[in-house]
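Blinded run. Sample ID left blank on purpose so nobody reads anything into the name before looking at the predicted structure. Input follows.
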Amino acid sequence: MAYYRCTSFGWRSLLRSSLLSLFLLTWLSACQHRVSTNQQRAAAAQARLALALQYIDQQQFAQAKYNLNQALAQQSNLVAVYNGFAYYYQQVAQWSQAQVYYQKALLLAPDDADTHNNYGVWWCHRQQYAQAEQHFLYALQNPTYFRSANTWENAARCAWRSGNTQKAIDYLRRAIAHAPKALALRRTLRQWSIPRTMTQ
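Blinded prediction complete.
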């Protein structure tokens, strides 16, 4: 009868292999748990952020800030949370604080198109039109950015506020090209196409 005799080396090798397998399984399980926990925290942060934005729209600013702080506690590296804080501070007219959070967002994700769009709006409100345009155009360089129509509209409205009618109309036409069914944009274009002297 043939049989396999394990030498002491064979047992050590088998034990090492088993321990390695056990370690890998434990490590993978821990990684999976960590990924799952991170996903849960990210989801919780997103939920808090959505709630905060609703409170901002309802002008319930204390509740909004509480939920923003909760979102930040759940996920401190989520760019959208910093954008949420910046938006909050804009709504309560704390412009310098809003800028701090836009800058934090850009430190986390320098190419984030949403942040550049929102920061462009911030600059436009501060009547710094060149800086605003720079951020709008940077956002629009991202080929996967799906809010291009909104950003072109923001750029158009900012150019209009600056008194640059031709650029405003050009940007608005680009917004319409990205959102051809947006009737409000077409109405605005008709209004802007009338010389300003006739509308004053």
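Unblinding after everyone has recorded impressions. The radius of gyration is 27 Å.
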